[in-house]
Design a protein that fits this description.
This protein is an alpha+beta fold and about 300 residues long. The chain has 7 helices and 17 strands.
Amino acid sequence: MPPEELIAEPGRLDAVVARLTGAARADVQRAIAAGQVRVDGDARPKSFRLTGGERLRVELLRQAPPPPEGPPVPVRYEDEHLLVVAKPAGLVTHPTERRTTGTLVNRLLGMGVVLAPAGGTVRPGIVHRLDAGTSGLLIVAKTDEAFVALQGTFRRHEAVRRYLALVRGRVAHETFGVEAPLGRRADRVVVDRVAGRAAATTFEVKERLARATLLEAAPRTGRTHQIRVHLAAVGHPILGDRAYGGGGDDARALGLARPFLHAWGLGFTHPLTRERVELEEPLPDDLRQALAIARRDQQP
C-alpha cells in the first residue's frame, strides 16, 4: 500500500505510529528497523521522542493474518491469560513476511486459541521462540496485557528454562558456563567478540557415555541458536546439529534427523496471577530412542 503522511503527536515514535495507524506495535517496530518510517524525512530509532507536529512518512506492509491450520499441538498449561504448549520438532514457531503457513501460530489459530495482537500480524502472542528443530515447552500470550508482562519476565531473565542436549565427546567438568557474545554472519550465528550481543549459558552434566555426554543447559539470555553455538564453540556440538558441527556417522548411528535439543523444563511466576508455574516435558520418542541407542552402544 502507498506510504501514509501523518502529523505526529507527542511520545515515542513506535507508540505514536501504532496509535495513528492502528497497526500492531511490533509491526511498526519492524517497519522502523527497515527504514520505512521517516520523521521530517529522516530515519529515527523506535525510541525517538516526538514533540508533536513532526511530519511522518509511514510505509507499512499490511499482511493478512496467518490462516488457521491443523493438527493441534499439546497444551500443558492454560488460563485466560496465557498457555504453555509442547512444540513438536520440525515446526517453525511463527510465520514471517514470506512464510505464512505451517507454523505453531497457524496451529494455535486452528485450535481456536485467541492470541495477543500486540505480537504483530505474523507473530501474535509469541513472546519467545524455539528453533524449528528444537522440541519442548514454549509460553504463548493470549492477551496484550499478558504479552507485555511476559516480555518483562523474559527481559529480566526471570523465566527458568532448562534444555537437554546430547553432545559429542566427554565433557571435562560437571558444571561449566559459557559467556560468548553472538552475532550473525550470513545465515549463521557465530561468536563475535567485537560486535556481538552478550550471551550466557550454564551447563550441568546429567549422564556420561563413552563418546557423548547428556547435558542440561540453562540459558541466561535468549539469543538465536545460543545453546547450539555455545556448545560448538567449546568443542562439544549437539549431536544431529549439522549446521554447527554435530552431524556425521555418530549422529546417524543414533538415528538423529535433527539436533538432540529439547526444552524440557520451564518455571516462571505468572505475571498476572503471581502463581508459580513449574512444568516438565519428557523427551519425545525420537530423542528417547536416540538416547537408548547411545546408552546401549556407548557405555563408558
